[in-house]
Amino acid sequence: MAAPKLESFGACLYSLRCQKDMSQRALARAIGVSAAYVSTLENERRLPPPVDTVQAWAKSLRLSSIAKDRLLIACKRAQRSQAPMDKDAKRVWAICRRLGPRIPADALFQFEQRLRDVL
Asked: What CATH number has the domain bearing residue 77?
């Protein structure tokens, strides 16, 4: 069985919007932003907003706890990926990425979190 693919914030937002059967404009109105901003997020041309903003969006969209968690995890992962890493951390990170297909995604994600906490 293949490990599940880690979902980007943009892909997650797009998926949840489609599940709710909303247009970008309708989503934008519901969360108080422009449709252009939603488009840039979905197409990953911008980093996601802060976690508290994403939590407010999830509440206003009345997302299930699973859907909200999916969105928050994707948001945190995107923000963490922009954090600077030292040389040793980059080496370990590269090894983890190479092993990715052989390790379940949730185990890789937990290892990644612990690694960032230590480094």
From this structure: 1.10.260.40
* Same-domain check for residues 33 and 46: yes
100 pLDDT higher than 90? no
In which domain, by residue range, is 109 found?
84-119
Q: Is the pTM of this model over 0.90?
A: no
Q: Is 51 left (phi over 0), alpha (psi -120 to 50) or beta?
A: alpha
pLDDT digits (tens, 9 = 90+) for 53-73: 999 999 989 999 999 999 999
3-state secondary structure string, the chain?
A: CCCCCCCCHHHHHHHHHHHCCCCHHHHHHHHCCCHHHHHHHHCCCCCCCCHHHHHHHHHHCCCCHHHHHHHHHHHHHHHHCCCCCCHHHHHHHHHHHHHHHHCCHHHHHHHHHHHHHHC
